[in-house]
Amino acid sequence: MARVKPFVSYVKLKKWGRYYAVLTLLLGFAAVNSGNNLLYFFLAALLSIMALSGFFSYLSLKSIRLSIIVPEEIYAKTVNYLKIRVSNRNIVPVFLIYVKKSDKEKVLFDMIPPKSYRESLMPYYFERRGYSNVDAVFAGTTFPLSFTIREMYYPLNLKVLVFPHIYRIRHEDRSLYPKNAGWGAQSTKEGAIGDFMGLRKYEKHDSVSRIYWKKVKNKDLFVKRFHDEDFKEFTLEISSRASESEIEKVASMAVYYLENGHSVGLSVDGKEELPPDSGMKQKIRILEKLALLSYED
Amino acid sequence: MKIDKTIRALTYVPLFIGLISLAHSLYPAGLIFLVILTAATYLDLVVGKPLPGVLLTVCGVLGTLIFAIIAVRMPFEAIAYWIMFLSIIKMLGKKAMRDLKQIIALSFFNFLDSAVFHYSVVFVLYLILYIVAASIALVVITFLDEKKETTLKTEVRSTLTKFGIRFGIGTIIMSIFFFVFLPRSPYVLLRAQVYAPSRKEGFSNELKMGKVEDMNLQDQILLRIKPLNRIKEKVLYVRGIVYNKYEKDTWLRDPEDLPGWKHFGEIKGTRTLRSYSITIEPMNTRVLYAPDYPERIDIRRVAFTPSWGKVFLVAGRNLLQKTQYNSYSSASPDTELPEELDFRDIPEVLTPILDSLFFAENLKGKTAEETANNIKYHFLRNYRYSIEEAPDSNWIQNFIVKKRGHCEYFATLSALLLRRAGIPSRLVGGFLTDEWNRFGSYFVIRTRHAHTWVEYYANGEWVSMDPTPPAAKKGEVLGNLREYVDYLAYLWTTQVLEFSFSNQLKIFLNLRSSLKKLFTGQRILILIACFAGLLLASAALFFIARKFTIKENVATQYFRKFERILKIKGIKIEPGMTAGDIEQIVKSSAAVAFLREYLMCRFSGQCDYQELKRKYENFRKSIS
To answer: What is the pLDDT of residues B388-412, one digit of tens each?
Structure first.
């Protein structure tokens, strides 16, 4: 979680704000030219509204604190979601606070009660893999009168590792890259069907249907062990000069197989970088390697 | 998507205030628009059937053309009526978020327009209400617009409303600051467009018998005169205009001005000038009024001419607007007797009756003063004041027979008698007041204070003579309150409407001198100590107030009501009982539903207060 402090704030006029400014100028001109004090009073009211509106929006932005939680896995060319927590330290509620990177990557908090916080997910898009900087976000508000937008620039300087883009792989792509795609030849993973591998004691997590009733001895229960026929263990081969689309393909395949419980390794230019393994950690390791493959900062 | 009725109603409030303010200043025509707007609002909020856009566009274009034609003769009124008309058209149509914004913009123009027409102190009330209402509406619309929604939860609406009220009050307070310090110029390119339709009338160059009587029957305030010196007179003669010619029951000022006429003569007696600050309400008048005997007048933005008879006449068109000026008066009567004018002329037809009066009452004296005194005391001893005598062509005879009348009769007959005795005399039209406002320390001059008196020329000066006996005094209902309200109106005129560059200068100079005094010697230390003390006291008060103001959750408030109802029915909820326990005791599906909603509200952080309210109402109905 990164807590960030605002850097500078600035104000932009919205469409109605421009009308308001023009009207104020015209009214000022009319008041000065006519000497009508009621017009002066109106002018004073318009200026007060402008000043107070600015003051309240500034106060709203000053009384909030931003915390940003970056997800563990960030993928290029995909909408990722950063968790944004906005805390209101003030004793009055703040309204319509938005946090954004761009107009499309934006999250709105409608009301944050005093001394509390609200959380939401902000879409965030990374163009390329490798290390990437989340430079800054803007917290802003149009409250109270929608005439102006006041924004504060929150410098983040968060360095995140962006994994290659992952897409749904096609069937024909699956056989392209595995180097030793033996169909479970070197596998020790236990399945429910396949070649018989012997017996073992029944354990609590085993399904009752797997109990080998013929071998019941002195109340000890046994189950049969089989090779998992669908299980694959293989190493994905990639060149260090592989194109971006090839990297994305390998990454997508690695993710696909690992998420289906297979064991996947990675070899770069014929050298085995990561021996085959399964699980989430292996997925992260492979994606990290692929994210930094021929990466230039 | 249709916007929630409550939100629409919130937006209409500032429009109504703006239109009421404008309708007030354009009464009675403005009232018609107000009635139509009310009907349109009813159609929108209750019936809920907006008119087709095409029809409204056609109406809008036609109406605009009609008002453009009216604008040729009455531009300011036409603009005001046009804005009211557009507001009604807008109210009749469909309402998207954009339309609500436009309605608020229209409400602003309605209110702004009323500032041109309005000069009454009631405007302050409208202004405060308008700023608060517009703030709430704008805040709510901003919120909905940003969220792209059309309805608000009760809790959010109430929080936003509270914020809007605070914002509005803050705006009003800050506006006062801006109003005082906004840069003013003593020179303006255009004169203020001041249009205050007024039925009040002052004196003109012609005074027909009966005019003052009419004025005496009314009770509108025309002037407020504040003595700037410490001397306070008990009564004040306010000089308006002087008439020289009497014909056909009418006094005339003929000619109005004498080109090349020498300004006032030497000031005799005390040379000390008494100064007065005079505020004149909008009235159709030719004259700048000032207490007797006026020597000089200081007025901004109004051209005037000092004329014969110590009279100050407005140059060009009659004065219509609310104005403030200073006058400087002396105790020296006018000494100039313009040769071009005849102050002895009387209609021949009146000679016999005047002669018979002289003979019968033995009014002739040896000197001009003696004759004047004889006439004055004859009236004061033998006649009484009455306002119920309608003037006719034979008024002198009736007056002599009935021996009662009002100032016009006394003054006119006195002036004519003096003329008959060969003493130059003239009639002065103005006001006589003894109404003193204790709060503002000023004299109030009402229409009923209109008065006429006589001046005769003797020993080189025009001597004032008032032959009218005093009128019986009437008691006033709510005198103190009336006085205070009038004082507020006076403050409004002097401190707001007539606030000027010189007032600003005074503020800055006073501020400078006060600061100089403050930052000398040990005063600064005392000031710092006071400030620190004040700060500590405020902090202590704040914390105490916070400690004692425990805000109860809305859901809890409903639960308390629920508890009370059960108590009446003999079911007591003991502390420590769980929701399940209560459910078992109550055994009512409505109560169970309410309890579930309450628990949801109280502990899940996601609450639909409307649903909670609905379930509470269901429970209440089921149990009763």
So the answer is: 766 676 788 888 888 888 888 899 9
Q: Total structural domains in chain A?
A: 3
Contacts of A143 in chain B (CB under 8 A): 139, 142-143, 146
- pLDDT bracket for residue A185 (50, 70, 90): very low
Separation of alpha carbons B453 and B471, rounded Å:
15
Per-residue pLDDT at B251: 92
What is the pLDDT of chain A when averaged over all its residues? 81
Q: Domain check: are A173 and A263 in the same one?
A: yes
Q: Do A95 and B163 touch (CB under 8 A)?
A: yes
Query: Does the beta-carbon distance from B497 to A34 stay under 8 Å?
Result: no
Question: Given CB atoms, is B171 within the 8 Å cutoff of chain A?
Answer: yes
For residue A180, which phi and psi values (nearest 5 degrees)? -125, 65
Write the pLDDT tens digit of every residue in B178-223.
Answer: 999 888 877 766 655 555 556 577 788 888 887 777 777 778 888 9
> Which residues are paired to A67 by β-bridges?
A3, A85
DSSP string, A169-187: PPGGGGGTSBSS--SSTT-
Beta bridge partners of B250: B208, B247
Distance from CA of B518 to the nearest CA of A (A): 30
Structure ipTM: 0.74
Answer yes or no: do A157 and A169 share one domain.
no
Q: How confident is the model at residue B86 (pLDDT cuts 50, 70, 90)?
A: very high
Q: What is residue B472's DSSP assignment? A: P
| Cβ count near B50 (within 10 Å) | 17
A50 and A36 assigned to the same domain: yes
Does residue A183 surpass a pLDDT of 50? Answer: no
The domain in which residue A206 lies consists of: 190-229
Pairwise CA distance, residues A151 & B531, whole Å: 36
Whole-number Å distance between alpha carbons of B268 and A3: 86
pLDDT at B273 over 80: yes
Determine phi and psi for B200, rounding to 5 degrees. Answer: -80, 140
Q: Report the distance separating Cα A21 and Cα A29, nearest Å.
A: 12
- Mean pLDDT score, B37-46: 89
Mean pLDDT over the full length of chain B:
84
Q: Are B276 and B227 spatial neighbours (Cβ–Cβ below 8 Å)?
A: yes
Same domain flag for A140 and A174: no
Residues of chain B contacting A31 with CB distance shorter than 8 Å: 182
Choose one of A199, A229, A259: the last residue of a domain.
Answer: A229
Is it the case that residue A5 has pLDDT exceeding 60?
A: no
Q: Which residue of B21, B142, B145, B177 is the best one to mutate when testing the A interface, meaning the one whose CB has the most A CBs within 10 A?
A: B142
B259 vs B533: CA distance, rounded Å = 69
pLDDT at A102: 83
Classify strands A222-227 and A74-75 as parallel, antiparallel or unpaired: unpaired
